[in-house]
Fold these 2 entries.
Entry 1:
Amino acid sequence: MRKKLIAGNWKMNNTPSQGAALIADIKETADKASCDVVVCTPYICLPAAVKAAEGSKIAVSAENMHFEDKGAFTGEISAEMLKEVGVTYTVIGHSERRQYFAETDETVNLKTVKALANDIIPIVCVGESLSQRENGVTFDFIAMQVKLALKNISAQDAEKVVIAYEPIWAIGTGKTATDEQANEVCAFIRKTVKELYGENTANTMRILYGGSMNAKNAAGLLAQSDIDGGLIGGASLKAPDFCTIINAATNA
Ligand code: PGA
């Protein structure tokens, strides 16, 4: 039985103090929940977020990470830096990073490998565009993203990876995939992982849905057979909405 995971992706929202206040508001719900709860925050918020989450079940995640250990990479953050402040997860390959910051399947793979080597759980994002969906290449495209992201990763390590299926056309648009559409692709991702690593890894790996998940539609999505949680943007910024989603995962 896979434990559900609810991750809030703040994106470029919240100052350190605003983030700490938000965490204070979700702590009680998170501690009572049967799912894992993660907040993915801007780099600058991470130390305050870790402090605010101390003694609670909430884990803190970065939204990105560099794949090199150190060096002349102005503006970048390493796995070691994240670890030292108490970060235990990182998002990798979010579609916004792929679209605006030249993230490629190759860098997604390098970052995933580096995160695992540093005991940071990678939340690897994949997802098709609207035109890919309309042209019938969703499954080919997702299979390619998943296979390239997991290159050179052992079965043992792959079990720790979290994959977030986020159709680009559903992110921040208010257009959620239907429960069936989301589950169909999450099940397909599990099938792809099974082809790569076998049944055990496929059954252990957590696969999330992301894209306009909110307090209203979360229960339906989280009840699906292959959706093990959510990566939530907009709705994770409002404590009552995020708490409703956490409770939906507990009750799913
Ligand atoms: P959204 O974002 O929930 O605001 O659509 C999800 C994401 O991009 O992770």
Entry 2:
Amino acid sequence: MSEHFSVTATTGRTVRILVAESPARLGWAAAELLLQEWKAREGRAFRVGLPTGNTPRLFYSVLIGMGLEREIDFHDISTWNLDEYLDLPAWHPGSYRTYMEKHLFGFVNLPRENIHFLNGTTRDWKVTCNRYERLIRESGGIDLQVLGIGVNGHIAFNEPGTPGESRTRLVRLSERTVQENARLFPDPKEAPEFALTMGIQTILEAKKIVLLASGGGKANAVYESLCEPPDPRVPASFLQNHPGELIYILDRAAAAELPVPDE
Ligand code: F6R
């Protein structure tokens, strides 16, 4: 069971909200949306921007299931991950590349050459980031960007204080984000402080954006991202400036602070 409604953001734009009954349902809803977008691609390649983290795990599991059932074929999909830690080699257990191998890439027929990642071990981060931007543009742009949101309102690794015009670059992570991510490292002291990330403007150039959030810890960030004017204090609030379709898929706890329209 899920519930749909719309929220009018402070910029006047409408945002479609889908509230799923559970995190598992949230994963299903997100995978179903990707499937529908893929089916509507009309013979073109389909480019999807992907996040890591706890929230999208079930989304990826459902996509793997859809691949096994041959509902979706990944051969004409290309993926563009949002971010990667600096100085972690791709094979490191804490790298986002390893996360993606473990949760999606290792189990679907996605051609290896269609996987795009920021290289965290680059010797020149500016060249790497500019190249990523150029590749996205040259590929035709991202069709569907999937996002998570941090408890402090970050999207990708764009932390509070990030201007809306930011592009792919090197960033220092907030203390809170380093602490939250430390749980995913065998030795929490190993959690990196720096990362490469797509910028807010880069994200806003995707044709369609879907943001996933689960748990009460995200409720305030979700509320502020739509019901407070766009401001660097809450990087996700810049999503209100996205010219295309913007959809939020939430569980009940994450949706708790949103204004629900009268019946
Ligand atoms: C990771 C990323 C981050 C996460 C966010 C939420 O690639 O882009 O912005 O989406 O930190 O993470 P979880 O889902 O672990 O709460």
